[in-house]
Amino acid sequence: MEPIILDGTVVAKQIKDGLKGRVENLRAKGITPCLATILVGGDPASETYVRMKGNACSRLGISSKRVHLPKETTTIALLDEINKLNEDPQIHGILLQHPVPGDIDERAAFEAIDLEKDVDGVTSATFGRTALGLSGFPSCTPKAIMTILDYYNITIEGQNAVVIGRSPILGKPVSALLLNRDATITTCHSKTKDIDKIVQNADIVVAAVGKPKFVQGSWIKQGAIILDAGYNEGNIGDVDYDACLTQASAITPVPGGVGPVTIATLLSHTVEAAERSAGKNE
Amino acid sequence: MEPIILDGTVVAKQIKDGLKGRVENLRAKGITPCLATILVGGDPASETYVRMKGNACSRLGISSKRVHLPKETTTIALLDEINKLNEDPQIHGILLQHPVPGDIDERAAFEAIDLEKDVDGVTSATFGRTALGLSGFPSCTPKAIMTILDYYNITIEGQNAVVIGRSPILGKPVSALLLNRDATITTCHSKTKDIDKIVQNADIVVAAVGKPKFVQGSWIKQGAIILDAGYNEGNIGDVDYDACLTQASAITPVPGGVGPVTIATLLSHTVEAAERSAGKNE
User: Fold this and answer.
1) Is A36 helix (H, G, I), strand (E, B) or coil?
2) What is the three-state SS of A41-104?
3) Residue A97 known to be catalytic
4) Positive or negative, the Cα torsion across A148, A154, A156, A160?
5) Binding site: residue ranges of A?
6) In A142-224, which ranges are E strands?
7) Are B184 and A187 a contacting pair at CB < 8 A?
8) Contact A252, A148 (CB under 8 A)
9) Nearest C-alpha neighbor of A225 from the set A142, A144, A153
10) A188 closest CA partner among A161, A213, A160, A166
11) Which of A128, A193, A198 minimises the CB distance to B128?
12) Cβ neighbours of residue A176 under 8 Å, at least 6 residues apart?
């Protein structure tokens, strides 16, 4: 049977279509949802990501405030900027583009983001709430993966899900979300032995390792579902797509898979944050 | 080869011996570390646990304040009590005995505990910090399991660890701690299929399911390490001890395994909380 291509652009369109009316309702009340994006330094890829996110906002009537800081910025100066945005009632969401230059304490910066404005789901408090099934904005890519699975009616309960990667904003939260949806979850990483054998046991594979074509076709059980959260230089995912395609029953392409849904999720969280803020002030 | 019995009483003694001088130092400064224990209702097992914890405190020169509330207590009244303890500078740690009566929102009560006094590691914020490798007091039983592994020099890195159970204060945090120590971690639960086959692949098995003798001897790979965090009526663990003993290379008994180390960990966290509080006021 031909594998299903899990088309993220279709999922993203559905999310964004659902937001339009909500943005209009907010604007009718005089509230424009606003996402602040913070970019430190001039990494070209990061500049592109931030610009894409800003453009996606504006197409939907969400405003964005771009804060661009020089690469020499100190941790304290960055924390000051974040605190200003925390206190600004016009700002509903804050995104600090990862990675920041090496001299900055990125974790301290993430932790400084107000929980209610943490639309990118980067704080440990948000992670804790996500993992324990409480309210909050989960990290966008993990949430996007769950949305894709649901859009395509893929069963999660009781499935063996293997996540490759354990970063704080991807591998760990996607493991937590899958566990809360009743998958049996195995989290692998650089110290994992015989990763091929572990992946061969997976009904659902999430590649979140940041290495181009890391996941081999021979690792994939016939009929497995593959979600590729990797996005490496030259539009290459973490999965050897052509080799895995022949094994999988469904797979996300790169580009056009998880990426567009991640951005739509960020927009969705920003609108929700604005709605919550409006609800409080009513 | 005879399996090693992982004797928790020895590990607990070492922890407590290490605390004596620290408690004396604090008392010399006029500070007596103090743990507040909150018990809601009259469940006999819970009463016993709270009394054991209070007695363990007093043997070490740690004071404890017992708050015993009637089973009709509302969530709001419980939150009020917790807030009083949060604000009381004489109290360094707060333990809300689990479970509370069903009408109370236990999660809301846990979340109300001040992060700096969350010596039992029950808040989502503490869980998030634990999982992302930041400072904080991890849940006591998960931390006790790690301490036992380290005391007996058991390798964690690169091992396949299978955790059976996914509760917020046991299964989830012990999975997170093992992952951060470079185990490949699989978390199983009631919806897991073919759990016997999954456990057969484990180098380290953590039983945290709350069902007497749930883990069968036939599930255990020859030479595996077994940690039994269960404590069911009649001093019975979650592991079929006699059957598993013949397979394991090391195993915790019940009682005398994880339990005593859990209590020692609680004392250790309370002393550390008092030290941090003293450091702030200097």
Assistant:
1) strand
2) CCCHHHHHHHHHHHHHHHHCCCEEEEEEECCCCCHHHHHHHHHHHHHCCCCCEEEECCCCCCCC
3) yes
4) negative
5) 165-167
6) 160-164, 184-188, 204-207
7) yes
8) yes
9) A153
10) A166
11) A128
12) A127, A130, A131, A142, B172
DSSP state of B209: S
Domain A30-115 in CATH 3.40.50.1220:
no
Q: Do domains A30-115 and A140-259 have the same CATH topology?
A: yes
Would you call A166 and B179 a contact, using CB atoms and an 8 Å cutoff? yes
Nearest by CB to B124, which of A128, A168, A186?
A: A128
Burial category of A12 from C-beta neighbours within 10 Å (exposed 0-12, middle 13-18, buried 19 and up)? buried
Residues A65, A38: contact at Cβ < 8 Å?
A: no
The predicted-structure confidence for A5-52, as pLDDT tens digits, reads as follows 999 999 999 999 999 999 999 999 999 999 999 999 989 989 999 999
Q: Do B189 and A184 touch (CB under 8 A)?
A: yes
In this structure, what token pair is assigned to residue A164? Answer: 């490759």
Domain spanning B140-258 has what CATH number?
3.40.50.720
- Name the residue ranges covered by the structural domains of chain A: 30-115, 140-259
Q: What is the pLDDT of residues A259-273, one digit of tens each?
A: 999 999 999 999 999
- The nearest CA of chain A is from the CA of B55 a distance in Å of 32
Alpha carbons B177 and B175: distance in angstroms, whole number: 6
Q: Rounded to an integer, what is the distance from CA A69 to the centroid of its chain?
A: 23
Which residue, A195, A198, A241, A245, is CA-closest to A224?
A: A245
| Local confidence pLDDT in tens for the 282 residues of chain B | 799 999 999 999 999 999 999 999 999 999 999 999 999 998 998 999 999 999 999 999 999 999 999 999 999 999 999 999 999 999 999 999 999 999 999 999 999 999 999 999 999 999 999 999 999 999 999 999 999 999 999 999 999 999 999 999 999 999 999 999 999 999 999 999 999 999 999 999 999 999 999 999 999 999 999 999 998 988 899 999 999 999 999 999 999 999 999 999 999 999 999 999 998 876
CATH fold, domain A140-259, is Rossmann fold (3.40.50)
